[in-house]
Each structure stands twice: as structure tokens, then as C-alpha cells.
Amino acid sequence: MPFLRILRDKRGIEHVSLLHAGRDGGTARPRVLYWFRTSPTAKVFGRSPLDETVRRELEARFPALTFDWQ
To answer: Which of 2, 11, 42, 61 is most buried, judged by most C-beta within 10 A?
Structure first.
């Protein structure tokens, strides 16, 4: 199941990653499906980190994965 990770560094830059915790060759290594970062001056309140267009593109690109956007 893919999961979202949001990290903020000491400069205030947010890194948003969509990862899949699949198994690669017997070792558990998360695979990056999508990644972006925001500037420290960007103020976005009340919005989802992934908009509807990005969600549909990810579902089309990775049809074997099941996404639970809630």
C-alpha cells in the first residue's frame, strides 16, 4: 500500500513523497512513486498535498497498486 511522507527541513522547505513499501529482492525498500518540494514561503492551508490530476496520473501509471486516498 502506498503511503505519503511529508518532511520539513531546517530551512522550511517541505518535501512530499509518495512511497510504496514493496519488497525488492527480499529486502523491504520503499520505492518513490512521486516526489515534490515546496519553497519555504509557500503558504497552502486546507488543501491535499496531491491534487486530483496527480492522483489520476499516479493511478494510470501504476495500475497494479491500490491507492486509498482517504
So the answer is: 2
Instruction: Count CB-CB contacts under 10 A for residue 18.
Output: 22
Using 50, 70 and 90 to split pLDDT, how confident is the model at 24?
low
- How many C-alpha atoms does 41 have within 13 Å on its Cβ side? 0
Secondary structure of 24-44 in HEC code, one letter for each residue? ECCEECCEEEEEEEECCCCCC
pTM: 0.65
Q: Are 33 and 20 in contact (CB under 8 A)?
A: yes
